[in-house]
Each structure stands twice: as C-alpha cells, then as structure tokens.
Amino acid sequence: DAPSGEADATVNATVTFTDEAIMPPVATDLGTLVDPESDYANADMSGTSTGGAIQWFQFTTTTAFNPQTGRYLDFDVTGAATRAIGIYSSTGELQGSGSTTSTTTVLKLLAGPETRRSATQNGNSWAGPLTTGGLQPGTYYVAIGGTTATFSGGFGATSTATDTDVRTLEIRTNIAETL
Length: 179
Known about the structure:
Strand content: 35-45%
Strand order of the largest sheet: 1-3-9-5-6
Radius of gyration: 21 Å
Oligomer: single chain
Order of helices and strands: EEEEEEEEEEEE
Number of strands: 12
Largest sheet: 5 strands, mixed
Distance between the termini: 81 Å
Shape: elongated
C-alpha cells in the first residue's frame, strides 16, 4: 500500500478495435432459391418454428428482386395467432420487418414489384415492401417469432414471447417464369 496520494499499482493495457464483420446467427439453411413450378399456392421454400422465441432461417438467391426485373419474392408467416418477421442481408443489415396479431391473416413481406397484388388480397396482412432497392443476389437471413419480437441492424432480433405455437415461413417467387 503506497502512501496517501500515490498510486498503489500501475496497469498498462492495449485495446484493439477491428472492423470484422458481424457473425450471422446459427440458422436453418433452406438452400438456394428455386422455383420448380409456377403455382403460387405452393411455397417454393418453407421452414417451421415452434414457440415465440426467434427462429432463424437462411437462403441464397442468384436473382435480383426489384421492380426493374419483374421478379418477386414473397415472405409469408402463417400458423400462430401472433407472428413477426425480419429479413437481413448477409452483413446483418435489416431489409424489412413486420408483425401481426390477427388470427385470420397471413403476415407478408414483399421484394420486387410492390403493385402486383393488393395489400389485402386473400385477407393478407401486408407488412409492406422490403428495402426500396429490392433484394440483390446473395445470402439472406430470416428471423421469425411472436409479435413481441423486435428487429434491428447487426442481426438484432429478440422476442419475449413464451407461447408454444407453430409458425410456418413460406417463400414464393417467380424466377422460373418467362416474363
């Protein structure tokens, strides 16, 4: 113990900051997006989640989805009374999100031509389009959970929902169709 007013110890520390990419979450890989048929009633990709906690899915696409290409990509979440969805780029940038507490609608997020269908077609709850530029080819991450879910950049997705409901993510596209 040093006399009063003198340092008891000296610490030298080095702090290093890096610009390393944010690691994506552990996710169920749905594979590369294909459109084996043009029947919109059947999902081109799907995954299931049980409970209100966040469940992650990932998929890859080689197609751009925006108004200029005429290609669309729809994300539907069905099943549970409360549903929320967030879409992220491979670098963790939030592309869009939405939620619903309606038991009679499908929660939807769209990429591509937003005017191609009515927001309430078939009783759907249209959460709105994703980023205005659409989605470019790449790998994307989808988070689904209960309506208490919140979404933010850097793969930020949390939920305090404790239900045991089953939620189904369905992804539909028209990439195989001749436009």
